Structures are given as structure tokens and as C-alpha cells.
Amino acid sequence: MIAANPPHEDGVPPGGGQPGGGRPDGIQSDGIQPGGNQPGGNQPGGNQPDEARLGLVADTPGEDISAGETGTAAGAEGSDELAVEAGHADRPGHASDAVGDGDDGDDGGPGGDTGRKIIDLTEPGDGLPPVIVTADDLAAAVARLAAGTGPVAVDAERASGYRYGQKAYLVQLRRAGAGTVLIDPIACPDLSGLGAALADVEAVLHAASQDLPCLAEIGYQPKDLFDTELAGRLLGYPRVALGTMLEEVLGFRLAKEHSAADWSVRPIPAEMLKYAALDVEVLVELRDALAAQLAEQEKTEWARQEFAAVAAAPPAPPRADPWRRTSGIHKVRTRRALAVVRELWQTRDEIARDADVSPRRILSDQAIIDAARAEAGKPAPTGRPQLDRISGFHARNARKYAERWAAAVTRVRQLTEAELPEVAGVGTAPGPPPAHRWAERDPAAAARLAAAREAIGAIAAERRLPVENLLPPDALRRLAWEPPVPATQETISAALLGYGARRWQADLTSGPLADAFAKAATAPTG
Length: 526
What we know:
The protein is α/β, with parallel strands linked by helices and about 525 residues long. Among the domains are: about 130-310, Nucleotidyltransferase, domain 5 (2-Layer Sandwich); about 320-420, DNA polymerase, domain 1, CATH 1.10.150.80; about 435-520, Orthogonal Bundle (DNA polymerase, domain 1). The protein has helices at about 50-55, 135-145, 190-195, 210-215, 230-235, 240-250, 270-280, 285-295, 300-310, 335-355, 360, 365-375, 395-400, 400-415, 440, 445-465, 465-470, 475-480, 490-500, 505-520; strands at about 95-100, 115-120, 130, 150-160, 170-175, 180-185, 205, 225, 250-255. The strands form two sheets. The protein has a six-stranded mixed sheet, with helices on both faces. The longest helix is centred in the middle third of the chain and has 21 residues, at about 335-355.
């Protein structure tokens, strides 16, 4: 259940606002005013703390500055208020600047002008905790987290672009009463005890689907979660990166210079650990503000269903022909050249797996494509493959495996026509053809799809959320290609649920889609 957290020990509710009245769906307002019902303008999550109690009343309005990672012009005009959370403004290293989103045309919805002070989060409020690397320290940390209160903020750092796969190299958690915990999952690879201790505790993650697989690998699989990125999408925020959400909703700014760092290094530098700790520093406060906004927009049940689906999602099946995702493969037009891509890709993958190195650090996609296109030349190349003429094979890591690259290309030359891959690919998931071919293959289906997209777009605009979050695009295409007969609200709803739509999505769209299909069936064609 998406519910508000109890007040902190100092009597200040999470989010730093004044105690508020009840809200629908069991959510308490906690003083967070969705829509920003405060003098001087509206904003999402416009919580205004007791600045006198915090000692944070600004002396002068701030200057316009860049809005950091959002990339938008800043502009706070005449606002002396600080939208900061209780207990954070007196932390070391938290500098403030006046900043607004610069969108004067919004009436207080997501992305509107906040006119607030931005606080730079530069130091963890409780100091930087030590990284847990022993079983005894892990057990003590798990006990501390289990004794805490409220949701637990969770994040994981991977070494994408450096190592093979998506393994977690650092896990960060933070819970009221327990503080921040940093765990080295290489030294402590079994977090099943953590999962058992927090089995009934809501986990708060940002973009949960990215972190849940690597957390599951080490034994932590939360059953109840709140995804702040997904909540932001449902609320209609145009930018939902964590740094952007923290700025727009809470008025905090995170440094992001370590977002693409190599987290497999040991020991992890202190500056990187500080960055990681700050990622969970105010994640629960963000969750509380977004939960209040979901209640204000009557989207709490939508979020509950979405979060439950993310938590229950099975592991993604292995992708068919993953080599077909090689960047630039659209330039490769013959079956034998495609076989070169396949063979070099598979060779690179074997090398990368054995070395635990990101495949593209072994050999670039561009080098693979260049080699494939060279093999497609006329007349067909013979003799030893001249890969040394391709610049991508000159890189230090690539040179070490020159014999294996040449052997891969030689194997392709020996393949029969029957052994070559098809240009269009085979074994793709069943379903309708690409939408751009519908008008030619089935004009009635194309008309249904156009009418359905118009109807879904109108609902999405009215409800202020992205079209793809209102209804999965694949479900819409399948429905339009082969609608139920008769195409009524009830039969369309059942079909959407069968295609993986949530109940709230089917309830909201099935009626308008039935109307859209009926109109498309009677519209003149020409």
C-alpha cells in the first residue's frame, strides 16, 4: 500500500512540512501540498517547511543560474523561501542557489516554475559510513535496518561499460532509525538475509527495473516497492532522472559526475562512495512528496498496480539473435556480411565474458560493421582477412585477439548459403507487422490504429501522463491489428489485459477504444 510515513522523532513529518489532514487511499498529506498551494505560485510537491524553526530564512533573492542536469534556463524571481527538508539544511556542504524551472506557462503541474532555493547535496548528513565487507558487519547492518522504521531507500551501482554483464558492485540502503548502509556485494555476495529481514518493508528505488535484476542475483528481491521514476511518469513530469526529480520536487541538487564511473574498482574512492550515499539520502522524502501528488491527482491506485507489476516481473528471457543489435547493422545489406557481424560479435562476446570486460572495450561495434562491409565487396575477398586495414582493429585490446578475429571471418567464408542468416531476421516475436506497412497490407487495421492512437493521445493529454504509460504500445498495436469480435468495451478490456495491460489502463481506455474502432469502421476510405 502506498501510504505516508510516520512523523520523525522530532515531530516533523517526512518531507519537512507541517502535520496535515487525511488523504484518500490512506495517504496523509504531511504538509506536502500537491500542486503547490502556497502564496507566490504553484509547483509539484510544493512543501514549505518551518524556515524559522530551521533557521533558513533567506536574506536576499538568489540569482538565476543553470538548472544543472535538466539543461533548462533557471530563473527564481523574488522568492525568499527555501523548499528544503527538515534535518537537511544544516548539514555540512549544502550550499543554496535560487533557481526556477523557467516554465512560465504552467499552472503548477510538473515542470512548472518553482521559484525556490536549490540546495546542493554535497555531503551525507550522517557522515560517510564505512563500506561493509565482512559477514559480521553485514549481519549487524541488517539488524540495524530491520529495527528502523518506514520504507527503505535502495540503490545499486553497476560497472556498465567496464565489466561484462550487469552485476552490482555496490548496494546502498537508507532507513529512518538505521541511517545509510553501504554494502560491497563482491565481498558479501549473499544478501538473502537482508531480503528476509526486510521482507515486509517497502523498498524505494528510482527506475527499479534497472536495479532489481542485479539485486535479485545477490538475494534481495523486495515484494513491495515504490518506484520514484515511474511515479514521476504517472504524474506527468517531463524529465524523470533522479537529479531532475530531486530538484523539481524537493529543491535538492545532486552532483552526477560519477554516474558513469567504474564501480568495480577496489577500494572504491571516497568521492564515489559519497556520491553513492547521496543517491539514497533523500529518496524516501522524494517518495513521500510523490505519493502525496499521486493522491492529489487520484493516481494512487494506478501507481500501486504499476509498482506491483514491476516487483512481480519475471527475468527477461534471453534475446533472440542479440548480435542483430550491433550499432550500425542497418548498413550491412548481404547475408554473408551479416554472418561476419554474427561471427565477430559472438567471438567478441566469448572473449569479453572470459575476461569480465565490457564487449565494446574489446572491439567496437563500428569495427565489426566495417569488417562486415569489407567482406561484402566485389569481387569477394580471398586469402587472409585484411582486418589490419580497419582502424577499429588497431586498438590495444583488439590487437591482442587479431588471430581470433581473422579466424572468425575465415569461418564465414566457408559457410554455405543455407548457413547464412536472413537479412530480415527470423524467430522474431509473433505479432503484427511494423505499423508503417499496415496501410498497404490491411487498410482497415491502419484506420483502426490511427483512430486508436488519437483516442489514447487525448486521454493521455487530459490525464497528464505519457502515452506509453497510459497503454503499452505493443498492446495497442496488437489490439488494432486483430480486434475482438464484437469490439465492445468489455471484449476490448479483456483483450488488453491479455496483452499485459494493467487493470487501470484497461478500465480507462477500453471505452474510448471501442468508440474509436466503431468510427474507423464507418469512416470512408479512399
